[in-house]
Design brief:
The protein is an alpha/beta fold. 36% of the residues lie in helices and 27% in strands. α2 packs antiparallel against α9 (207-223). The protein binds N,N-dimethyl-L-histidine (AVI).
């Protein structure tokens, strides 16, 4: 079964133009994921330098039984940004899950993946929800079962793509869908030697560069823009003070680009910020989760401590926190 939830949001054209008019120029990372971008992202997950996906999968494969044992049986897994549901499947294979609610913005793709999941796990009730969770998360409430423990599953260190205040806000929204002692299972990328980040986001096959530059090709395809994609280059660097990898597109010359009725000037060497990917220590992440109403129940890491999967129990907010959440 698939439910679609539509939320109001600015159009891509309005948002892209506003970002390119701001100083410094920015493009939202959510625009990476058209069909071509999603295909390139799948390839990033396979390049040897990008450890995150592989490492998180190995943690889940090894520890999923122990993780879900902390929660009991008859779990309802709500996978946010589920895509192909690969990681959700790993949890379903434990036999402890009675319902699965994958949520993703690509409704049709999700429908096909969710029906495959339903065929593989006939005892699990599968209800796919096609929505932009950043716009419509609250409307999930009416679709969640009353019985069984709810577990929001947000894998892939996607939380790292939000600036910390937005990440905290998203965690609070997750908390809003949970009752006391329901749980959040979340993957995040750990702080480590900067050279590892530089390699991971500048892979030698150039797949991350193609993923970044695809933004401009996408705007040409979908907004009729006239970016010369060869006049920009991919830049990835680690800002140690902010604890984040930044991706940018650098203009290789002074140029003017047309999008809709706008002409946007770029200086030579000017950077357009396309993505931040925040890295955390366990303590930093626990503190952020605590601020959103979660208590750490356990954390699982790979032996090299590249990546962490944290399990958090939802506690009741005190009144002050609740007021802050609704403001
Ligand atoms: C989806 N997200 C967690 C990836 C990351 O590592 O921040 C996106 C990505 N960007 C470049 N490589 C991968």
């Amino acid at each position: 079964m698939l439910t679609r939830v539509n939320g109001d949001s600015r159009t891509m054209e309005e948002e892209v133009i506003a970002g390119l008019r701001s100083i410094p120029k920015t493009i939202s990372p959510k625009y990476f994921y058209d069909d071509e971008g999603s295909r390139l992202f799948d390839r990033i997950c396979e390049v040897p330098e990008y450890y995150a996906t592989r490492t998180e999968t190995s943690i889940l494969e090894l520890h999923r039984g122990a993780i879900l044992d902390r929660l009991g049986r008859d779990l309802c897994i709500i996978e946010i940004g589920a895509g192909a549901c690969h990681k959700g499947r790993l949890l379903l294979e434990t036999g402890k899950v009675s319902s699965f609610i994958p949520v993703d913005i690509s409704a049709e793709y999700l429908r096909s993946q969710a029906s495959k999941v339903a065929r593989s796990f006939p005892d699990v009730s599968v209800h796919a929800v096609g929505m932009d969770f950043l716009v419509s998360l609250g409307s999930l409430e009416s679709l969640l079962p009353e019985v069984g423990k709810r577990v929001i599953f947000y894998a892939g260190s996607s939380i790292g793509n939000f600036d910390p205040p937005d990440a905290r806000r998203l965690l609070r929204q997750f908390h809003g869908l949970l009752r006391k002692d329901d749980a959040l299972l979340i993957g995040y990328d750990l702080k480590k030697a900067p050279t590892l980040f530089l390699r991971a986001y500048n892979d030698s096959a150039g797949v991350t560069a193609a993923f970044n530059l695809n933004l401009l090709a996408r705007f040409n395809r979908e907004l009729g823009a006239d970016f010369d994609v060869t006049a920009f280059r991919h830049v990835a660097r680690y800002d140690e003070a902010l604890g984040r990898v930044e991706m940018h597109l650098e203009s290789l010359c002074g140029q003017e680009v047309r999008i809709a009725d706008e002409r946007v000037p770029f200086d030579r060497s000017e950077l357009t910020h396309t993505e931040s990917s925040y890295k955390y220590t366990k303590e930093e992440f626990d503190a952020m989760a605590a601020g959103a109403g979660f208590d750490s129940v356990g954390v699982w890491m790979d032996p090299a401590a590249y990546f962490a999967v944290g399990l958090y129990a939802s506690r009741e907010f005190c009144r002050l926190e609740q007021r802050e959440r609704s403001s």
